[in-house]
Design goal:
With 157 residues, this protein is of the alpha+beta class. The chain has three helices and four strands. The protein has helices at 16-32, 69-81, 147-150, and strands at residues 2-11, 36-52, 55-67, 85-93. The protein has a four-stranded antiparallel beta sheet with strand order 2-3-1-4, with helices on one face. The chain is elongated and about 80 Å long. The N and C termini lie far apart (79 Å). The relative contact order is 0.19. The model has no long low-confidence stretch (mean pLDDT 82).
């Protein structure tokens, strides 16, 4: 049997008990087909990056599944029919991670954040060696009139 990580998003107007009932329902589908569900993490209500079916927030839930592909397909088919499930994604993995997922770890336990250039966030990089100092900034009024904006040359009258 294969190992999967499955995440689904349920509507925000459901209660926590209704979300747990959904998890139990989909667990039953997997177990009836000969598989098993390991870790189940409820990540709670989180904001969505964009609206999905007029919802701005959703319950996020992670399930570790050990089962046949047919069981996962049946679970996904039922999720596609359900109005309570907004989105879902299943990924096949080589091994399930031990301990809490990255979403459940406290932010300070994950270590310092780094930007794309490898340095810590928010640090002052200092002067750029390849550019000269540009000098003080000028206000818009110091520049004088712009020819295309302030003159009437070429304007239709």
């Amino acid at each position: 049997m294969a190992l999967y990580e499955h995440v689904f998003l349920a509507r925000q107007d459901l209660s926590q008990q209704q979300v747990e009932a959904l998890v139990d329902q989909y667990k039953g589908v997997i177990e009836n087909a000969g598989g098993s569900v390991g870790r189940v993490e409820n990540w709670g209500v989180k904001s969505l990056a964009y609206r999905i079916n007029k919802n701005r927030k959703a319950y996020f839930t992670l399930m570790d599944i050990d089962g046949p592909a047919d069981a996962v397909k049946e679970m996904e088919r039922q999720m596609g029919i359900s109005e309570d499930v907004l989105r879902f994604m299943t990924v096949r993995v080589d091994a399930h991670e031990e301990g809490p997922s990255a979403m459940m770890q406290r932010r300070d336990d994950r270590g310092p954040r780094r930007d794309d250039r490898g340095g810590p966030r928010g640090d002052d990089r200092g002067p750029r060696g390849d550019r000269d100092d540009r000098g003080p900034r000028r206000d818009r009024d110091d520049r004088g009139p712009r020819r295309d904006r302030d003159s009437n040359e070429g304007a239709a009258q």
